[in-house]
Amino acid sequence: MAISTRAKAGDTRYVEGTQGDYEDWIAGASHMPWYDWNRGCSPTAAAMALGYYDEDEVSRCGKLVDYYDSYDGDHHTPNIIAELAEAMGTTSGDGFFDGGTLFWNIGPGIETVANGPSNNYAFDTTYICGTMANDVGWDSIKSAVQAGCTFVWTTTRYWPEQQRLGCHSVAGYGYAEAGPAKDIVVHNTWDSSEHWYAHWDGNPLAIVHIEIIQNYVCGLYNAHLLSPRGDLHYWDQQDGEQLVGGCEFPITWANYGRPADEVKIWLATWPVYDSEWHVVATVPDQGSFTWTVPNVRMDRARIIIQQYKSGKMVSSDGSLGPFAITPDNDPPTVPAITSSTHPEEATWYANDDPRFSWMSADSG
Fold first, then answer.
1. Pick from 300, 24, 325: which is nearest to 183 by CA?
2. Which of 64, 74, 105, 125 has its CA 20 to 30 A from that of 239?
């Protein structure tokens, strides 16, 4: 019997030692990614559910996410979200109907993207629909998690505490139960925290739609970029690596002991999907390459790697966030000197931050 972390956290529904107190996550749950809402909650949730298979070194489905980009204010957006939104027929526009997806389009959209010509995997989705009053899909969720499968969980009532309807999709990868209390463990599309959501919240009218994602054929290769990763904050704060032009920097990646023939390395600017990519090098798949950083200014740059076997791309990855390149011959920023309200004084400002003041020699 597992001791629930909810019990340890003081959740009275999960009393330590209660019969049936149990929780479980998919194997390798740390590989479940967080993506910020982009184009719609359903494509974003599905991207996280599929992103697990892309990140997981066992599944080896490294073509699902090709690169990350900045789009509409989101700076860690995987390209697969746009593909899923198109395949699901997710609406785009202003106001209430922006980002809406029909429930029955979620599963087919997942299969279209994962199994289409760009990826050629063999994913299958199982669709379950019903009301919370029927305890819909709970046994299927447990079986899926125990088998290492992620799922997209959609409900018409995601905000029960507000007693109103609120259709929303999240990415599920775990569960917990203790007697009648049942929670699913999810990644939301609005933050980077693990959430526990009541599978049964007491409302018999709430409708639940579940798409369980199963992968029957793993890939053979998966390359994961280790550096440069760029800004790792959930929202871009320009805290990525600060590279200096003309200097050497190690580009590194993991191939999890299954090297392909070679890796092609690209340098892209912002936004990635609409910029010119520059070939950095094509090198053997040995996990590292010493890069001489170009002596040009790039405020937001990313590295993208593509793994090739027998001339065919088998995996791809890229910097999660942007990094910056500063030319080594850039002159230092000269702070402005501005007069204060007293003409005999002057104040030094650097980036609008006062550093020190002094009095003129003839001020007495």
1. 24
2. 64
Summarised one tens digit per residue, pLDDT across range 288-345 is 999 999 999 998 899 999 999 999 999 999 999 899 999 987 654 544 444 444 444 4
Per-residue pLDDT reduced to its tens digit, 32-85: 898 988 888 999 999 999 999 998 877 889 999 999 988 777 778 999 999 999
The 10 Å Cβ neighbour count of residue 98 is 12
Residues 6+ apart with CB under 8 A from 207: 129, 130, 131, 132, 155, 156, 157
Would you call 161 helix, strand, or coil by DSSP?
Answer: helix
- With vertex at residue 322, the alpha carbon angle to CA 317 and CA 323, rounded to the nearest 5 degrees, is 110
Which SS3 state, helix, strand or coil, does residue 224 take?
Answer: strand
The answer to whether the beta carbons of residues 192 and 186 sit under 8 Å apart is: no
Q: In terms of C-beta density within 10 A (0-12 exposed, 13-18 middle, 19 or more buried), how is residue 101 classed?
A: buried
Residues 336, 105: Cα–Cα separation, whole Å: 57
CA-to-CA separations, 43 to 62, 95, 109, 169, 296, in angstroms, rounded: 18, 18, 9, 9, 36
Q: Mention every residue, 6+ apart, whose C-beta is less than 8 A from residue 52.
A: 26, 28, 31, 32, 33, 59, 150, 173
d(CA 338, CA 347): 6
Q: Is the pTM of the predicted complex or chain greater than 0.70?
A: yes
Length of the chain: 364
Number of CB atoms found within 10 A of residue 268's CB: 23
Detail the DSSP E strand segments found in 231-333: 242-244, 248-254, 262-269, 278-284, 288-292, 298-309, 312-318, 323-326
Specify the 3-state DSSP secondary structure of 141.
Answer: helix
- Cα separation, 241 vs 227, in Å, equals 9
Please report the sign of the dihedral spanned by the C-alpha atoms of residue 353, residue 356, residue 362, residue 363: positive
* Class of residue 5 by CB neighbours under 10 A (exposed 0-12, middle 13-18, buried 19+): middle
The DSSP code for 363 is G
CB 200 within 8 A of CB 132: yes
Angle, helices 106-115/41-55, rounded to nearest 10 degrees: 40
